[in-house]
Amino acid sequence: MVSPDDYTRAIHAHSLHSIKDSICPGTDYIDLATWLLQDTKYCNRKPEDTSPVATLYNSISASEEPAQFRYGDLDELLEHPRPEKNHGQILFLQGFLPQDWISAIGSKYNVDPQFLRRHLDFSLRPDHRDAFSTPTLPSTAKNIFELSIISILYQHTTSCDNGRGPHLQQVRSVQEEQMTTYSRQLRFRAQAGDSIVRAYSTLDDRYAAMEQRMSVCHVRNGEGWLRKW
Is residue 127 over pLDDT 80? Predict the structure, then answer.
């Protein structure tokens, strides 16, 4: 298993390969590499917060209790045994996680940075998010998929012209600006385990829709981005 620092450096080195000097350019990962190299001091949970941010299930025994890890338990997660041959593990991560957690989990399970880039698009600079061409063949990411979770919220208000008219459009425009600001500030203000909202929109004077996302990556033993454990 490579170290978290080596994993981050490998992503950074790959991001420096352009289409001019490589048949496998890594320019899509410039923002991800930059974010992973940033300081993580800003992202600290309060000492009294004991909520788990990671839950690990082993497939060896269905009756075995899952292991739970708080933000300060990263070393314990890294020391937790990897799955035995012909067995697996399922790791659930909750909400926002800082760079040290992402690098550590990526190195422990040899996670493809394409998965991280897609899931962490809220952490990337908006001016660079779509600056490069992402491979479109499904086979390039057949082990990665995303599930959108839509919540319908009740927000009673009498100021939306009964869900019609120019005022509703104004409300939506303001919300779009607020979501842009939220996404830009998230990587600086979020704390470990905080829920992440991907989109929010008012439907009418009573209801709004909120989108969140569940990202899934499947990695086989002995496989993965660096081809080794």
Answer: no
